[in-house]
Amino acid sequence: MTAQDMELEALFKEREIPYLTVFNKADLTGSSATNPSKFYISALTGEGIHELKERIGALAGQNKKEEKFVVTDLLKKGDFVVLVIPVDESAPKGRLILPQQLVMRELLDHHFAFISCQDTDLKETLCKLKEKPALIITDSQAFEKVSADTPEDIMLTSFSILMARYKGGLKQQIIGARALATLQDGDTVLISEGCTHHRQCKDIGTVKMPGWIEEYTGKTLNYRFTSGGEFPDDLTGVSLVVHCGGCMLNEAQMKSRVQTAVKQKVPIVNYGIAIACMHGILDRSLLIIPTEDKS
What we know:
alpha/beta; Rossmann fold; 3 domains; four-stranded parallel sheet; 13 helices; 10 strands; about 40% helix
């Protein structure tokens, strides 16, 4: 075992990733394949190969998780939902973004009805409905307008909040949202996105988000920007991480980024939760979320 091997084992344990440490050439060492902490095989003689396959199968079985839900576990039979999906210059042409697709597919799979509209059409859409929806889910960038147009007796949340709950880290990101108010002049904010895309003139990460943060805090701040796989291991000098919704990252990747920030005592929040906080509607947008998921 090298130092790098042991570092990997430590990372697997920390991130709760199932693993086996397997040594080849057992025919030369005489080591037992039944060692509880290390597994020995021989590619030459076949010793331990069958047992290794069985161990891998057992690990896969142990790693099976209960079905996770984006939103349908928050609803009851017969509920229907309104999805608010703005279409502007930043919206991808000819398609919906992944969180919107995930929500729609899950609602269909579990036999919930939904309708969708743009933020500019929400008032008119609600007026046409015979009964009020159980929930309105909005794109984060339209949060302020949608909140103003949504009656107080209708639950409201965002795709970003649902994704943070779905992928883990919602509690930490709520704490991160509260940290926005503690920023001081000269602090550095890391704005990080999980995907790479062409930057537009009104890009949310490099243009809109810094503007919203400075308007909210009244402070002059420094910014660092990363995208794709560039998320830094060392967050020295960073006062707050503002991350995209992470729709292009899997659960393990997003959790790893949240854990990296938390471990270094750097608050982290995603776009949607930050926007809700800065517009004073975070508490309202969390009402539908179970207490154990948010505190």
